[in-house]
Amino acid sequence: MYIKVISCHKAPSGGVVVELQIDQEGLKANSVLSSSNSGKRWKVESRVLYSAFREVHKRFPFEKIQVIRTELSDKNKEKLKLEMCAKENKKIFQYYIKGVGHKQAPEITETLLCAGY
């Protein structure tokens, strides 16, 4: 399984929201991702979806979903919707993950391996 880190940022709850490009349709909750560089591991908590785009998000039946409430102007909503759809067409999705034994985020552009899928 190919998983590439596109972007990431720390979440207020202590985890990390990451954009991952994956070569399959979604990641199951509780899957463990490991860095091929550092050996650090992260547990997949949920897929992140945004309420403003709920009608267009690609969904996979086995994923645990966390919906983030978003309020956008119509102009911004349309632009962001197009950007989000373009990413999802490239199999880039957002996930909420937590470090296993650490609080660090994965490195951008690194490749992760998936266990427990």
What features would you describe in this structure?
The protein has one helix and seven strands. The protein is globular and about 45 Å long. The mean pLDDT is 88. Strands 1-2-6-4-3-7 form a six-stranded antiparallel beta barrel. Strand 1 (3-10) and strand 2 (16-22) form a beta hairpin. It is 14% helix and 39% strand. The chain starts with a strand and ends with a strand.
The gist of it:
The chain is mostly beta strands and 117 residues long. The protein has one helix spanning 74-89, and strands at residues 3-10, 16-22, 32-35, 41-50, 65-68, 92-99, 111-115.
Number of domains: 1
User: What is the β-strand count?
Assistant: 7
The secondary-structure class comes to: mainly beta
Looking at the structure, what is the overall shape? Answer: globular
Alpha plus pi helix count: 1
Percent helix, as a range, is: 10-25%
Q: What is the C-alpha radius of gyration, as a whole number of Å?
A: 14 Å
Parts with pLDDT < 50 across at least 5 consecutive residues: none
Instruction: Report the span from N to C terminus.
Output: 10 Å
Strand order of the largest sheet: 1-2-6-4-3-7
Give the biggest beta sheet.
Answer: 6 strands, antiparallel, barrel
Strand content: 35-45%
Average of pLDDT = 88
- H/E series, N to C? EEEEEHEE
